[in-house]
Write a structure and sequence with these properties.
Chain B: Its EC number is 2.7.13.3. The complex is a heterodimer of chains A (221) and B (457). Chain A is built from eight helices and 13 strands. Chain A is α/β, with parallel strands linked by helices. In chain A, helix 4 (84-92) links the parallel strand 6 and strand 7 (97-100). In chain B, 28% of the residues are buried. Classes of the chains: A alpha/beta (221), B alpha+beta (457).
Chain lengths: 221, 457
């Protein structure tokens, strides 16, 4: 996905940039309102992450003009506080959601997904591999004429596999991305979800292959 | 928080009192003046009639054949009789010797050239007597003739009584009218004050706008200082909350940066022992960040419960909103959130605090629940109280520790590796107690059941 991050704190911004890029997203960074406007008008983003307190103005002003310009790109506001009044004001101004800093990246990812799903913007996100069609926003997998709704962890696991077909993912890496760090799970917990995905994929020409001692990969038969 | 003002006197009563007292004094003075004036006028009238008859008697006195002759003119006395029912007396003296009339009339004193008047008791009543003298020459000898005419004062007294009655009535009327005006004037004079008090007390709890609208000149200083007080209050309130939020932000942002870098490092590290160390680090960072957040949440809750400002809060709407907000987080672990509400659970309270309390309880339920389980919320009313019940299937609280779970920093033995500060339930309990409600913890089935109880509003 393509993100625009509007945030003036450099340390915070670079951490977010690194982390989002690690997941394969394309991220542009604007440290103030002026550059945010320039970026937003120059390129199409899937999502804008907007800080409220910026050196040359209020993020809410950007939000207002963004909506007035009929720019449909969803906006998630990064707020430093969680007071109800703040939330109401940014949602009233047209923000799609907000997240209180500091946030958990899996939470941010989940919120982005929820926002994009709500916006229904996503024919372009539908992925085809072999004879399966996967819509990560709707959370559906189509095999032949069979449509399956995936649960969250199945969905994310499939997303990770399909982001790099034929690449081997080790069990620990998969656990990192699927479970939060305070969940005490063994690496074998991943087997349950691989098992479920295999069941869903039955009958298609796509399979999840176990690479002994290494991990798993997805590939066409 | 509102405390009745210490009342000392009332402007309304004082104003009315002073105005009524003033008009009473004015009315009394008016009545006295009228009566006095009437008495003087009546006296002058009687005196001039008496003197006229004295003069006409004196004019008719002549000396005939060396004798003083008096021809009492009828008109002189009938003039008096016409005026009233009063009795008339007269006396004529020549060199102090009685010529004719009533000898026992009182002594006129020194009548002087223009004549004199005297008021004296006579014939069991009171008379007014006019006296004048004239010198007559009888055979070359000058003889002083003194003529006195007297009249009883009943008519005069009756007139005076009548005038006093009318005067009194006018005085009382004046007083009643003035008192009525005093009350009306006071009421209308104090209306701007009442309007201001009404406008300020009708305000909602969050309304810290300055007082607007025209006020009389005399009240301008009051409104100006009220507005500056409101300004200072708003400033200090916003500063306290800003400080709490700013402090949380300052503490958590560096933690966030380090945590993110640790996560990135974890992706690149392969050796299991290094991975375990980094994971441990991330967990510790999460714990610190969460603890900092909750400590400051707790400070915010304490601050707000000390300045509790209540408004109507719909529990079902608040819960729905919060669930919508937490759903993406619960989805991450495939935990289903459901709400079910009945009735019209409206409570008086601080929405920010109630939301904070409920979020802490829900956070706990989500945190301790296993993947693929459900957290169910029920909102309703029972026995006049409104409640929000949160149930999970996470094994429940450790038996025997139920009673101390809401103490600060208390955590169940089953907390294990779950990140937590032990402040969540404390915050929830303090919020509810500030609202006059309570937090109950139970184990039901295979999970915990936490209920937030609110008193009937």
């Amino acid at each position: 996905m393509r993100f625009l991050l509007v945030e003036d704190s450099m340390t915070l911004a670079s951490a977010v940039l690194d982390r989002l890029r690690l997941d394969g997203h394309v991220v542009d960074h604007a440290p103030d309102v002026e550059q945010a406007r320039a970026y937003a008008s120059a390129a199409d983003y899937d999502l804008i992450l907007l800080d409220i307190m910026l050196p040359d103005g209020d993020g809410r002003d950007f939000l207002k003009s963004h909506r007035l310009a009929r720019n449909e790109t969803p906006v998630i506001v990064l707020t430093a506080r969680s007071a109800v009044s703040d939330r109401v004001s940014v949602l009233d101004l047209g923000a799609d959601d907000y997240i209180t800093k500091p946030f958990d990246f899996s939470e941010l990812e989940a919120r982005c997904r929820a926002v994009l799903r709500r916006r229904g913007g996503g024919a372009s996100t539908v992925q085809r591999f072999g004879d399966i069609t996967f819509d990560p926003l709707a959370g559906t997998l189509c095999v032949d004429d069979r449509r399956v709704s995936l649960r969250n962890k199945e969905l994310r696991l499939l997303e990770i596999f399909l982001s790099a077909p034929d690449r081997i993912f080790s069990k620990p890496k998969l656990v990192d991305r699927l479970f939060s760090y305070d969940e005490d799970v063994s690496d074998n917990a991943i087997e349950v979800y691989v098992g479920r995905l295999r069941k869903h994929l039955a009958g298609s020409d796509v399979e999840i292959v176990t690479v002994r001692g290494m991990g798993y990969r997805i590939s066409r038969a | 928080m509102s405390r009745a003002a210490q009342v000392s006197g009332s402007i309304r009563r004082r104003l009315i009192g002073q105005l009524v007292l003033g008009s009473a004094v004015l009315a009394a003075v008016l009545v006295l003046l009228v009566i006095n004036l009437a008495r003087n006028v009546a006296q002058d009238t009687q005196d001039s009639i008496l003197m006229a008859s004295v003069t006409s008697i004196l004019d008719t006195m002549t000396v005939r054949d060396g004798e003083i002759s008096v021809d009492l003119p009828y008109a002189a006395l009938s003039m008096l009789g016409n005026v009233s029912e009063d009795r008339v007396f007269y006396r004529i003296l020549a060199d102090g010797q009685l010529l004719t009339g009533y000898d026992d009339l009182p002594d006129p004193g020194a009548p002087g050239r223009e004549g004199g008047y005297v008021t004296a008791p006579y014939a069991e009543t009171e008379i007014r007597m006019a006296t004048a003298e004239r010198r007559l020459s009888v055979g070359g000898t000058p003889i002083m003739v003194t003529v006195s005419v007297a009249q009883t004062r009943q008519g005069l007294m009756q007139t005076l009584a009548q005038v006093s009655r009318v005067g009194g009535a006018v005085g009382v009327g004046f007083f009643v009218l003035a008192a009525l005006l005093a009350v009306l004037t006071t009421q209308s004079g104090l209306r701007p004050l009442r309007d201001l008090a009404g406008a300020v007390s009708r305000r909602g709890p969050k309304d810290l706008r300055p007082v607007k609208g025209p006020v009389p000149q005399e009240m301008a200083p009051l409104v100006t200082s009220l507005n500056s007080f409101i300004d200072r209050l708003r400033y200090s309130l916003s500063r306290s909350e800003d400080f709490i939020a700013e402090a949380a932000h300052r503490v958590r942002t560096p933690l966030f940066t380090v945590r993110t870098q640790a996560e990135i490092a974890l992706r690149r590290v392969e050796r299991p022992e290094n991975r375990a160390a980094i994971k441990e680090m991330i967990r510790a960072l999460d714990e610190s960040s969460r603890a900092a957040g909750q400590l400051l949440d707790h400070a915010m809750v304490t601050f707000r419960t000390d300045h509790l400002e209540k408004e109507k809060v719909r529990l079902d709407e608040l819960a729905e909103e919060l669930v919508d907000r937490l759903r993406p987080v619960a989805d991450l672990r495939d935990i289903g959130l459901s709400t079910q509400s009945a009735g019209n659970p409206v409570v008086q309270g601080d929405a920010v605090l109630i939301e904070n309390a409920l979020r802490n309880v829900l956070d706990n339920a989500i945190k301790y629940s296993a993947t693929d389980s459900d957290v169910a919320m029920r909102i309703g009313q029972q026995g006049g109280q409104s409640f929000i019940e949160v149930r999970d299937h996470a094994g429940g609280f450790p038996e025997g520790a139920l009673h101390r779970m809401t103490e600060r920093f208390a955590r169940g033995d089953n907390a294990g590796g779950t990140v937590g500060s032990g402040l969540g339930l404390t915050i929830a309990r303090e919020v509810l107690e500030a609202h006059g409600g309570r937090l109950t913890l139970e184990n039901k089935g295979d999970g915990a059941c936490v209920t937030l109880w609110f008193p009937a509003s």
